[in-house]
What does this fold into?
Amino acid sequence: MHDFIFPFSNEEPKYKQIYQQLKALIEQGNLQSNDSLPSIRRLAETLQVSRNTTLTAYEQLVAEGYIRGEGRKGYFVNVLEQVFLKEEETSLLPSNVKQVPPAIEIDFRAGAVDQAHFPLKAWRQFANRALQLEESFVYGEPFGEPLLKEQLVQYLLQARGVKCEADNIIVGSGTQQMLLYLGFILKHDFASVIVEDPGYLGARQSFKLNGFELEALPVLEQGAQLQLLSEMQSRLLYVTPSHHFPYGVTMSIQQRQIIIQWAKTVDGYIIEDDYDSEFRYAQQPFPALASIDHSRVIYIGTFSKSFLPGIRLSYMVLPKSLLHRYKEQFSEFEHNASSLHQLTMAAFMKNGEWTRHIKRMRLIYKQKMNYLVEQLQQQFGANITILGEHSGLYVLVKLHVQQTEEQLIQSAEKYGVKVYPTSPYFLEHLTAEPILQLGFSKLEMEDIKDGVQQLAKAWQLSSINK
Amino acid sequence: MHDFIFPFSNEEPKYKQIYQQLKALIEQGNLQSNDSLPSIRRLAETLQVSRNTTLTAYEQLVAEGYIRGEGRKGYFVNVLEQVFLKEEETSLLPSNVKQVPPAIEIDFRAGAVDQAHFPLKAWRQFANRALQLEESFVYGEPFGEPLLKEQLVQYLLQARGVKCEADNIIVGSGTQQMLLYLGFILKHDFASVIVEDPGYLGARQSFKLNGFELEALPVLEQGAQLQLLSEMQSRLLYVTPSHHFPYGVTMSIQQRQIIIQWAKTVDGYIIEDDYDSEFRYAQQPFPALASIDHSRVIYIGTFSKSFLPGIRLSYMVLPKSLLHRYKEQFSEFEHNASSLHQLTMAAFMKNGEWTRHIKRMRLIYKQKMNYLVEQLQQQFGANITILGEHSGLYVLVKLHVQQTEEQLIQSAEKYGVKVYPTSPYFLEHLTAEPILQLGFSKLEMEDIKDGVQQLAKAWQLSSINK
It folds into this structure.
């Protein structure tokens, strides 16, 4: 029989400290299997605590299996193997201090939205109301909140020309997640998928994770080489028809018809990624591919560009032929997107705030886009070609220079400006001249101007040098 | 050359109506390929609108490829194939009216949380602040917001005994989603996985989607039959050690040691689903399996039970051996959980609100649990056995009757009470007597009492009948 004296700290309840001390003694082998422990009364007296305190500590140790009570005989240590945490302790040390990168003052990042014009008040109001709905306190509807789907049905019809029922809509938390889930349904019938080259990396990685082979459909600055479709093996096509990523070209109605016809001929599907069609500056947004034929098109939309990437809210419209299989395969899954955000967005849309927000942002982004293009032309003149300036939240800048993409990015960084590469988007058909991506959504006019001026200094390509 | 007269409505801009009318005429074949269109001036005069209006309409049609301008010659209809929306129109009709189920007054649903004691004020306050952070307006950190991960590191150490670095934590939007993603990393090394029988359906479906074979580990009311582990083929084990789903038993330290030892011997991994360990009523929560050996355990936690299922916030702690591969395979993925909720939860935790919330809810749920058990014992006496009453947000009720689970559920429904089956959780080892699941988290005391009284009437099993 042992007696124990512990110093108590004030930070945790005493019973917990007793429990922890005894547990440590057992785990470290100071108390051996079948050793007897002091009685509850005795331990209470030694440690000058109440019996209730020692009893609670013993009960916890009994419940976890460290010790056992044998009635009047008292408490004993159980037989335990020594397999406790010993390994890998070193891995818990703080990782090495990383090298500090140069300070970036102006970041032409594309994955962001304007913060200054966010409808904070309206969104807060609806968010606070959503927290009082009963729906917020249960697991939501597995494929999306009905209130949001109703609004999406109307929005898709009015803004994108897509006719669908609420039942065909699956709410998700992002394009990659939805493509990944969709892949489970499609991979049994399709071994490969045609992707745009250049094109969106997130989509490619989703397809690859599901084991799809990728076939590259070359896209030029003028658009996709659709005449090559007939030579391809795959019957599945992933495209960004309203705003090609990254070139920014839009498919004409003729091109849309060609691919719909192709899908019918090969008995395949088209996955239409309609990620930012709201922001088209020269004309109204074009109707979606899914508005032409919704039996062959899987439509994917998102609130990441048009509203807020951080709310992780997106949706897809499945053709009838896939819907049943999808719902069956994911019958035990909870939905992925916050139901609070879904309910808030539903109220936001229902009250017309959504339409107002899109109109306002289209104007703001149009101004920013025009200003960026103007600044670039002023600074660089004929040394660059600007691509994709009619829609979306970024432009591409093709530089007629000998330097590599990498060199241009690095010299920009030295001047405190971050610009982004496009070469990772190319599978096979890399362009000869470097093309950089410049997003502007989160930048103020002032920053756009400063940023471009810094770039001119960094690259020493000002139009005066021509 | 045609002339057009349209009646205008007041609902949409006139240019849009002109665009829509011409588009419809082209699509329906009323305007044929290469037909010439009236000039901008002429159309403006016929329709009595400004030239700017007709110009805008034509520009949109040109941009979408319906018509072309040929300089001074004017505008012409382009060559289009007739593949427009004709099929499947019938599928767009509203689906048949469904049969109305009887009104449920008291729902013993487990997938819910208490609404009355939700910390609405504090949560709102932190949520509103999160909306002003710059982090909320960009795509978040792909594997979770650093601010949240810091808090989780502390919480896991203090409450679950798990030592980890922020870098090892992956934030996700739910257990099934995380298991699915994890499956992509594990399936190359593991062809099958051992799952508890009975056990959690969502986990099984995730594994099946990734092509894993399932091996059933029988779990009895007293706990898992761990001695059978040595006979199994798989080297991967999915368990709920702190609160077995659905039986509610907890693994002792000996049992935990056995499975850790097993994982070492077979060079495998244990996936620990720690979904509601916060709510343990008789003792303090037991330390997690991952606190014993974090090199063999993939730890999965969630805010769905302890906070709110609708915010879709969960996390896993990956052993070093898997971390790199995970981050590589999902390098192009955005995270799945709302960064607004992540940032809000981080502030909520940092300010001590989280600990307060858990303490408060543990007390409230303990009272509800005790009351439900008391009511059940009073009404049914020896006709039932109650399982899992020491933790979690539901109990199991085993009925010593001849009726089937289905019959019991249906007769309860006739009395306005919804109770849930457990048979779907069983793979091979279904029990002889029916076991029902009764969740109580969202119910008031009054409802619990009424609900149990109604069940007594429905099942005619009151303890007086003994």
Summary: Residues 149 and 200 of chain B are 27 Å apart (CA to CA). Residues 83-99 of chain B have pLDDT under 50 and may be disordered. Chain B touches chain A through 98 residues (CB under 8 Å).
